[in-house]
Structures are given as C-alpha cells and as structure tokens.
Amino acid sequence: QPLDEQWLLAQLQQQGFAEHWQPILLAWMQVLLNTSLDDSGMTLAALTPQHKQAELQFYLPINRLLQAKELDALVKRYDPLSARCPALDFHQVQGMLKGFIDLVFCWQGK
After folding, report:
1. Residue 7's pLDDT is what?
2. Nearest to 57 by CA among 97, 107, 110
3. 12: which of 17, 25, 29, 75 fits an S-S bond (Cβ 3.0–4.6 Å)?
4. What is the rounded distance in angstroms from the CA atom of residue 6 to the CA atom of residue 20?
5. pLDDT of residue 93
6. Range of the domain at 42
7. Are 100 and 60 in contact (CB under 8 A)?
8. What is the chain's Cα-based Rg?
9. Which InterPro entries does UniProt cross-reference here (predicted)?
10. Angstrom distance (rounded) from CA 14 to CA 10
11. What are the tens digits of pLDDT across the range 14-53?
C-alpha cells in the first residue's frame, strides 16, 4: 500500500520540518518498506495489519538481582545489533521489567 503523502506532510509540519523534506522522506520510506529482509523476499510492506503488532508491551519478572553485565552479555549473545552497542549500565534491579518491542509480526505462519 502506498504511503499517505498528506499524513507524512502533516507529521513533518508538526515536528517543525520544512515541506521540501516530504519527497525525500517519502522515497526513503518506500525503499525501507520494500527492501527484502531475508532470502524469501519478505518486506515490511508485505505485512498485513492482522499479522503485525507495533509497540507490543511486555513485562518480565526478575526474581533475583539482575546486574547490567549479565543482561548485556545475554542480549549481545543473541542480537548482532546489540553486540555492536556500548555496554548496558544500570543499578541492580529486582522485581518487574517493563518494555516495548517495536514490531512483532507473523511471516509464513511463524
């Protein structure tokens, strides 16, 4: 589905950006949405509303003290992008961790 040009223009104006950015951002977003994410040709543009959930909230119980070093090692082990990021730095925590996953989707039944 094509991007809504009027919506994009309204977003730019709301954030204080000049109108001349609209065609540039529109082209950039079209490339992002239509770029294949894997060998099967999966793209973000191919996701239907019923197969995706944006900003999925989650709660994760933490039953014992969690240290930044432990969590940092875990996420860097399984996420290549996180592996390139600076180390996490926070005080020990225990209780409930609340967060949001930007995008969760179902593709080919998975």
Report:
1. 93
2. 97
3. 17
4. 13
5. 82
6. 1-46
7. no
8. 19
9. PDDEXK-like_dom_sf, Restrct_endonuc-II-like
10. 6
11. 999 999 999 999 999 999 999 998 888 899 999 999 999 9
pLDDT tier, 2 (very low <50, low <70, confident <90, very high otherwise): confident
Amino acid at 64: R
Q: How far apart are the first and last CA of the chain?
A: 23
Is residue 24 domain-resident?
yes
* Rounded distance between C-alpha atoms, residue 108 and residue 13, angstroms: 38
Q: Is 30 a domain residue? A: yes
CA distance 106 to 74: 24
Could you give the CA distance from residue 95 to residue 73 in angstroms, rounded to a whole number? 20
Amino acid, res. 49 = P
Pairing of strands 93-105, 52-66: antiparallel
Instruction: Decide if 26 is inside a domain.
Output: yes
For tokens 């009027």, the residue is: 6
22 located within any domain: yes
Distance CA 69, CA 55 (A): 26
> Into how many domains does the chain fold?
1
CA distance 90 to 82: 16
d(CA 74, CA 31): 32
